Amino acid sequence: MSSELLDALTALEQQKGISRDVLIEAIEAALVTAYKRNFNQAQNVRVDINLATGTMLVYSRKDVVEEVADDRLQISLEDAQVINPHYAIGDVVEEEVTPRNFGRIAAQTAKQVVTQRVREAERGLIYEEYVDREDDIVNGIVERLDARNIYVGLGKVEAVLPANEQIQTETYRPHERIKVYITKVERTTRGPQVFVSRTHPGLLRRLFEMEVPEIFEGIVEIKSIAREAGDRSKISVFAHNDEIDPVGSCVGAKGARVQTIVNELSGEKIDIVEWSEDPVVFVANALSPSKVIDVQVNEDEKSTTVVVPDYQLSLAIGKRGQNARLAAKLTGWKIDIKSETDARELGIYPNENSPQLIIENLDEEELDDFDFYKEEE
């Protein structure tokens, strides 16, 4: 029995990644249960497994007391010292009580308990593996679909892609490979439950980290993301090195890098704009591809009034207000867009802070911040 037990423990350790100590502890607990159940015993016992010899011995444990109240759990000091004169009050006396046919009964009874412990330990390992991968992107295979959810196989576990985390323009088919973003990992009675998303902004962030080495290495930083999954997204980027073009790094040669991400997201349009700590520049950039001729900032209300050429008004607002909505979410500023004609009629443009009135007083370096204005001119 020694070699069989040892081989079984070694195989489980290698295949399931569960330590031998955990398995031995589970077996010992199962054998204690088997002993009490099959031999109708209520005393305190422990089971000792000797892997070298393959033996399993049962020991009763009794506390040494002055006056015995329950002889199944206690032994008098006098009787204890007959066994060993060194025993004192408070010690524990152990005596082997292994039944003759214990091995056969224990093997039958312990099997189910050991299996359960192994399953629990395996679930714990899976949980620890995936809880460390929250907010990360993984590859999965669509396994099955029901009325609301899609179940994605991640290897050791099946993840849930809820209806509200699915891109509405996508069709998911069994056995299809997809990338998903892990949003949450929970412990349940049936094992770890992993929830994933295709709409989370974090998916877009991770895709750019995978495709753009400058982002992965920290040379270029993604400052913010605004996403309406399946339709359009905007991201703002910033380069910590002045010699690096953050937008160009993300777009790639002939648009190769961003096109890979667009393909992964089933054609979702992605606007990449340069971040600036100056809200005038940042808001103007965020409204790309629309041209902007003026941005007026209200710091107290964290709002802006943006003036665009008349023919650019619909482009600036976007279909169903999408461009303006995404720009506001990207920048964190409220954005009120006015056409040039309306702004002039309201007397809010031009004003002393409008680019066309101050641009003549800027030096060449400061002029770069007004590229959005100069392009329109």
- Give the SSE order as H and E letters: HHEEEHEHEEEEEHHEEHHEHEEHHEHHHH
**Biggest beta sheet summary:** 5 strands, mixed, barrel
How many H/I helical runs? 15
Shape: elongated
Distance between the termini: 89 Å
Summary tags:
38% helix; 15 strands; alpha/beta; elongated; 15 helices; 4-stranded mixed β-sheet; 377 residues; 5-stranded mixed β-barrel
Q: How would you describe this structure to a colleague?
A:
This protein is α/β, with parallel strands linked by helices and 377 residues long. Helices cover 38% and strands 27% of the residues. The protein has 15 helices and 15 strands. The strands form four sheets. Strands 5-6-7-9-8 form a five-stranded mixed barrel. Strands 1, 2, 3 and 4 form a four-stranded mixed sheet that branches. The chain has a three-stranded mixed sheet with strand order 10-11-12, sandwiched between helices. Strand 13 and strand 14 form a beta hairpin. Helix 2 packs across helix 4 (102-131) and helix 9 packs antiparallel against helix 11. It is elongated, with a radius of gyration of 35 Å. The model has no long low-confidence stretch (mean pLDDT 87).
List the helices and strands and how they pair.
Elements: H1 2-16, H2 20-38, E1 45-50, E2 55-65, E3 74-76, H3 77-83, E4 92-96, H4 102-131, E5 137-145, E6 150-153, E7 158-161, E8 177-188, E9 191-197, H5 201-211, H6 213-216, E10 220-228, E11 232-239, H7 246-251, H8 256-264, E12 269-274, H9 279-286, E13 294-298, E14 303-308, H10 313-317, H11 322-331, E15 334-339, H12 340-345, H13 355-358, H14 364-367, H15 371-376
Parallel strand pairs: 2-3, 7-9, 11-12, 14-15
Antiparallel strand pairs: 1-2, 2-4, 5-6, 5-8, 6-7, 8-9, 10-11, 13-14
Helix pairs in contact: 2-4, 5-8, 9-11
